[in-house]
Amino acid sequence: QKDDDIEEGDLPEHKRPPAPIDFSKIDPGKPESILKLTKKGKTLMMFVTVSGDPTEKETEEITSLWQGSLFNANYDVQRFIVGSNRAIFMLRDGGYAWEIKDFLINQERCADVTLEGQVYPGKGAKESERVKNKTKPEKAKKKKDADKNSKGIKEENRATKQRDDL
């Protein structure tokens, strides 16, 4: 073996061969079981929205508590704040993503968790937003905006509202 050869465990994730999938563990009634097995050992990211219109500092504190709880439960999760009420939770092993999602949606201040294109409403979600497993919320939002515009209701833009509040 040459000195410059890289061992399989040291290769970047995209160059490693995929882990073999044991199809006997797949429950045909639960499509999430297939995703769990295919994401095992791969890096995965999930978006988490904090409810109640928090500041960025409040979002930092709340998600830090969640990350600490997950760390204490031996889940390796990194957290990145991406907005005043949103954070990305990055997992080194995507096989645990659904367990972490279940923990997060049971938190009082969790509005929703987006995982693999699915939006799971949390305890902190408003009743109108608790439509179970909404898929691709962008399409629903575009349709809603189109309906408003077709009715002739003129909506103020975000910059105007912020200027008025100042």
Automatic annotation (TrEMBL):
Protein name according to UniProt: LRP chaperone MESD
Subcellular compartments: Endoplasmic reticulum
Chain's gene name: Mesd
GO cellular component: endoplasmic reticulum
Biased composition (Basic and acidic residues): 124-166
Region (Disordered): 1-32, 121-166
Predominant subcellular localization, coarse grouping: endoplasmic reticulum
Domain of life: Eukaryota
GO molecular function annotation: low-density lipoprotein particle receptor binding
Family assignment from sequence similarity: Belongs to the MESD family.
InterPro entries (alphabetical): MESD (IPR019330)
